[in-house]
Amino acid sequence: MEQLSLTTPSLLFSAISLLMLAYTNRFLSYAQLVRNLKEKLTEDKSAVALPQIANLRKRLTLIQSMQIFGIMSLLLCVVSMFFIYIRMYNAAGYIFGIAMILLIISLAICVREIQISMRSLNLHLHDMEEIEK
């Protein structure tokens, strides 16, 4: 295995930080949506459909998974840097590889969450078109 330098794992820091910011923004927007739906539900029981709640619950679970895998990836990058620092290059390489796999998993879950979000928005758009007709 080719020897890693300290800069290799540190390259992921900015990328993972930006991803975590995006994930957190998505989570906050869903949290606000849940709060709004709860208000609607207390005012009018028929305003919120059970499939809508299930969809949001699934999306929140996916965002949680995205965040967990992203944080684990960042943590392992730091551990990898520590192993490089103490000159345990083989261990550092394997740990960095695992960090990259975790980041790939996080991104794959993000793609799935985006697909579900788009499907949900398309249903709303379809409903709006039906109302206009």
TrEMBL record:
It comes from the Bacteria. The chain crosses the membrane at residues 6-28, 66-86, 92-111. Keywords: Membrane, Transmembrane, Transmembrane helix. InterPro entries: DUF2721. This is DUF2721 domain-containing protein.
